[in-house]
Write a structure and sequence with these properties.
Blueprint (H helix, E strand, L loop, with lengths): L6 E7 L2 H19 L19 E6 L1 H5 L4 H11 L3 H7 L22 E3 L6 E3 L1 H5 L6 E3 L8 H12 L10 E6 L1
Parallel strand pairs: 3-4
Antiparallel strand pairs: 1-6, 2-5, 2-6, 4-5
């Protein structure tokens, strides 16, 4: 959308995902003040334009090792699906205005995932699919105004299939 910028934070491990995003928001606000520019983290300012998300890319040790293949990701998505409503409830205020199923978003009422699908709740990058599950996945549902500690902990709690696979969760936030 006009005037909308994108930036990325990470990759970082564990609780640092929240620390890094909050520091980046602070720095963005301070720089904006110097140039008399306003920053909004509202997920949807104008109905006819794209909204602002905080896509959360993440991987587990098992995904980075790639030895379990795409089945590991499918199994993880089977854990995400029944917790969709819980995730949406903490993925940002007014996020339902953005997650309409239009403008490269999923519908906030339905969980979906797919390879290279920008309209899915969770996108599996083509590179991850081509590498037979080695890589990362992207939760496209979080809004730009999320609490990164809440989102990071919920993604870890839902997505880590076994504690030994944590080692650690790596994530980066892509805010736009």
């Amino acid at each position: 959308m006009p005037g909308q910028w994108e930036y990325q934070v990470g990759p970082v491990a564990g609780i640092s995902i929240g620390d890094q995003l909050w520091v980046s928001r602070y720095l963005l606000g301070r720089v904006a003040e110097d140039y008399n520019v306003d920053v909004s983290f509202a997920p949807k300012l104008f109905p006819e334009w794209n909204g602002s998300g905080c896509h959360t890319n993440f991987s587990t040790k098992t995904m980075r090792d790639g030895d379990k293949g795409m089945q590991y990701i499918h199994d993880m998505m089977a854990k995400f699906a029944p917790k969709h409503t819980l995730h949406i409830s903490v993925y940002g205020d007014d996020n339902q205005k953005r997650l309409t199923g239009h403008h490269e978003t999923s519908n906030c009422h339905t969980f979906s995932y797919g390879v290279a699908n920008r309209a899915a709740s969770v996108r599996i990058p083509t590179s991850t699919a081509n590498a037979k599950g080695k890589g990362y996945i992207e939760d496209r549902r979080p809004a730009s105004n999320i609490d990164p500690y809440v989102v990071g902990s919920l993604v870890a709690d839902t997505g880590i299939l076994k504690e030994s696979q944590f080692g650690p969760l790596l994530a980066h936030f892509q805010t736009w």
